[in-house]
User: Fold these one by one.
Assistant:
Number 1:
Amino acid sequence: MMQSPLLESAITFYDQIAPFYSQELAARAEYVGSINRLVIEALSRSGSSKIIDIGCGNGERARTIADNLDGVEITGIDTSAEMAKQASLYDINVINIDIAQELTQDDVDSVGGNDAALCLWNVLGHIKEAKRQVALMNMKRLLDPNGQLMIDVNNRHNRAAYGLRPALRNTLKDFVSRNDNRHGDFPISRNVGEKTIATETHIFSWRELLLLLEKSGFNVLETYSVNYETGEIEWLKSAGQIFIIAEKG
């Protein structure tokens, strides 16, 4: 019997896949491109010029977004030193701050005062449950009044992406235990060279994320369900991943 790989911390996991992260983006090009377009449109409407990209990865998406807007400054935040090295290739400045820990005033002074914050591709799902609200409240601290947060996460009720039976099973679990979301924790794995590495991630429900945003002091402005394969905007919430634009309350 093949032994499952040990679960790595998110930092260790992403340090190891950093050189291959462009391939990860390419594999979900339709979805990633659709979210990028929604972000660019929203930033253009709001006139945002100073932006932070939380969990920016290799900086490729930040560069794409910046190149499609005039006069925009994007600063990346990531805990992975190897991702920061990759981001430098895209001319993205990355600051090593753990958004899930209490920020110092120096952190706020150095990175704060932003018009918008991006938290894309289930970055929030790599933060442990006990720290997710801390992370969101830190994001709020880094925003100016009326600053916007743009966030997308995986949807555990997404029948199109995960299959009808798993989605229905997750829906039933949420109905039985409405305030216990631990069944949204799942291992993910990637092949790196000749070995397989794994970490744990969290897949959300709409209700769970909306409650987290409300508790953290954000007002939801727009919601989208985005197909994980085609990038199309779905009218059914169970047919796509979750993308939300919220405003600092």
Number 2:
Amino acid sequence: MENVDCYISENGYFIASDYNIRNLIDPSESELSTMPSTSDSSVKIAGRDGDVVLSTTYEPIPFNIVCFTEDNLTPEQKIIEEDKVKNFLNYIKNHTIKLGIESRNVYYNVKYSGSLTVVRYPKTLRFSIPLKSSSSYGKKIPSKVITGNNSETSNTIKEVGAEFTILGPASSPIISLNDYVMEFDTDVASGAKLIIDSSKSTVTNIDEYGRKTNQMLHYNHQFPKIQNGTNTLSVLSGIDNENQVKVEWNDLIL
């Protein structure tokens, strides 16, 4: 993943590793829209019905991250957790930082905008962290790809899921990533593709007409993650052309 200063993880945590912040997000209360608000400049023209739009302006996107600390905190621990968040926000009052959204593979340049709200419960804390993007759009995080019998270095700070694709035809294909052997006990037809998603632990066949079927029954339930360092993809059997196999992922780098 492109360098980011903080991120919303795929499993729903707000994480700022440099400040040791890892808080569970409340998705029902948080505002995490990726659609900017717009305003139009328009003019009325004689003889025409309605306004004619001259231009459309897209507004910066607001983010309000509502999150909770772990439960059963002592009064001393609550003070420490609150100080972590305040120190983080004090830094970004005058700095634009990168907020990554792991599930969407995008990041936004954001600044602190508004005021921190803290609700102190008996055993936990609730934070409302307001941020605003500096532009009306996010930037796509570039992916890394290994094709066939090759290796690629990952600089991820934690293991990340990947998407493995096997293009048909293939006869009970077996591939591996590092020490994990991934076995499929039936054929992949010509024009079809088999996708193993190790983030979501799913195995899907997509036929030549785009129809999807769950293929977990035919799989050995191995869902390897990309690790920091060298990752090696190998085509072991059942596939004539090694270039029919690839693995794609996004590094998470702070």
Number 3:
Amino acid sequence: MAPPEPNRNERELAQVILSKTLRVRPGDSVTIEAWTHTLGIAKACSLQAVELGARPLIQFHDDASFWRLVEEGHAKTLGALGDHEYAALAKTDAYIFFEGPEDRRRFHALDGRTREDLVSWEWKWWRQAERSGLRCAWVLLGRAVPGSARYFGVDLATWRAELFRASMVEPAVLRRAGTRAARAFQTGKVVRVSHPNGTDLMLRLRRRSVSIQDGAVDAHDLSMGRFMEVVPSGYVPAALEERYAEGEIIANVPGRTMAGGSALSGGHWTFHGGRLVNFSHTKGQNEAVAAYAAAPPDGRDRVGVVSVGLNPEIRIAPYVTDQRAGRLMLLVGGNHFHGGSNPSPFQMYLLLDGATLTVDGRAILRDGKLV
């Protein structure tokens, strides 16, 4: 079966990914990992790579074959990459990752052992990618599929259109929007989050490295060991002092548990003595409690990351709702991906619109607007 011809939106997105996110140059080797439902955009990226003078390679996964092999008990084999794949990774300059399989609900419904076997490649792949010095784009268009749209209760066409628009926002625009927050997170000490809904939370920073997630992998990112950008992008995350948090925060936007992917609405968290001492949700509480109980105790109750969103085109798109301009995100649990010291596999986050966030008394957000 020939891959479908890319449409105009896919061709434009391919230009953004290769020219702006990954800054592909003539002679670069470009690896594109695609699934059945992302062949159109993968083909667009391949064509764009050739037009830029680069050398593309598409790694293809077939959804139907994947599920047949999982049902036949081959999850461990599927989750173990071969030496030839790591050799290709070592010779890759730019990597484009379209996530699969298409049916994410079916994937998350698998038993825990099977899921772990299927993703057992992740840590070794990540280490190899860091050593290789490649530039990677994790493109979320592949997550906008009919089943996920029904699960999240959003219109599929609206979701896809928003992803295209949000991906087109210039990295320079996002960098300008995030400069003040990044500078404050880098050099500040005391963070306060407040809101008329009763939120009043004190946090601390440790002057760790901070990077604006602007949709472009540049030399500064690579020097800090950050080789991957999500597309679309647009937020400034900061790893917090894990042992200090006092007060409470009340969400007004649905959040999520990262491990199980459960939706959480009406979140109300209380911190004391640097620990999350109580959490409740009007929706998803049972799932949150179960995920929390199943996680290793060490680190699951520690505050992890605070971030502010920068992207003016994000409205309803699942998985990137934290990137909406002016939105605040607070995460508990593992924060090592953003330079923290908590390696816990547990993560849970909530979102707040209309918040005021100050660093050492200076406003970064005021009533949900970037200062």
